[in-house]
């Protein structure tokens, strides 16, 4: 009888212990608005995972650089202060130079080419290249092609001369402005609106959805549709956190993330056109469409950047990315 009572007590305390176990918390920190591809992807992930693992995993999303700016977020992941982020691929150069391939101006013809490269063997290899730094890349997420905004019209490269442009923390992006005799200024995303508004800088490069959601179009008189580069993300976590997830939890987290990324990519596609149209309709900024010869001038002017960074990035990787422009 005593044995039965002891066994019952054990079962009861195990069940009670199981019920009371604190959920695993995943803090997802990012810098953009909620109404963007990344913002919506993060919310979708939270919804999916909390539906599938109620009480076991809790996701807290911190948008708008509430928790960390992109220059600090990878460090915060390694330290375990946050568990998930999706920084722009342009913000990884202190960890590896390989991702700089994505910053080369006029490399990709369109977002389909970007997608093909990311899914290629070389693109997938890049995702795992941060393991030695304690980071695990879980997937790519799209935003879109970048446009150039300024407080004066930019038709050809000579129009950029002497102007200050904010760039992300990437030497390739800085060089891209230096070769057209402009002055790049590396600043966090959270400071861009104020820098533009106070005219501390003259312009910046970004996607339609970032220009719209952060209201840059309200403080820039012109936006030139250059499609000169890509702004995409790596969804990243810490190697330690990922390895430490229980084996019944990790696959569910991974599946939910992949589904959220697919959703985020659909949002990226829709918002790219929608937000461009919303900016045009606002009449606060004039959108300039380049002729093919004007676009060619920008392409030619920025071409020396490829050579400058070829050794750091690797000629093979650049070639692989270029191949993605061809549809097989
Ligand atoms: C982002 O889309 O996450 C930020 C891009 C930027 O810093 O311009």
Q: What attributes does this structure have?
A:
single chain, 328 residues, alpha/beta, D-Maltodextrin-Binding Protein, domain 2, six-stranded mixed beta sheet, three-stranded parallel beta sheet, 11 strands, 46% helix, globular, binds succinic acid
List the helices and strands and how they pair.
Blueprint: H1 2-20, E1 24-29, H2 37-52, E2 57-62, H3 70-79, E3 84-85, H4 111-119, H5 121-127, E4 135-145, E5 147-150, E6 164-167, H6 171-178, E7 183-186, H7 192-197, E8 203-206, H8 208-213, E9 222-225, E10 230-238, H9 239-244, H10 250-282, E11 286-289, H11 292-302, H12 304-313, H13 315-323
Parallel strand pairs: 1-2, 1-3, 6-7, 6-8, 9-11
Antiparallel strand pairs: 4-10, 5-8, 5-9
Helix pairs in contact: 2-10
Bound molecules: succinic acid (SIN).
Signal peptide: 1-21
Protein name: C4-dicarboxylate ABC transporter
Keywords: Signal, Transport
Which regions have little confidence, pLDDT < 50, spanning 5+ residues? 1-18
In the CATH hierarchy, the third-tier topology is known as D-Maltodextrin-Binding Protein, domain 2
Order of helices and strands: HEHEHEHHEEEHEHEHEEHHEHHH
Number of helices: 13
Using the coordinates above, name the CATH class: Alpha Beta
In order across it, which strands form the biggest sheet? Answer: 7-6-8-5-9-11
The class by helix and strand makeup works out as alpha/beta
The major beta sheet can be summarized as: 6 strands, mixed
Number of strands: 11
Estimate what percentage of residues fall within beta strands: 15-25%
Q: What molecules are bound to this protein?
A: succinic acid
Protein name: C4-dicarboxylate ABC transporter
Keywords: Signal, Transport
Family: Belongs to the bacterial solute-binding protein 7 family.
GO cellular component, one term: outer membrane-bounded periplasmic space
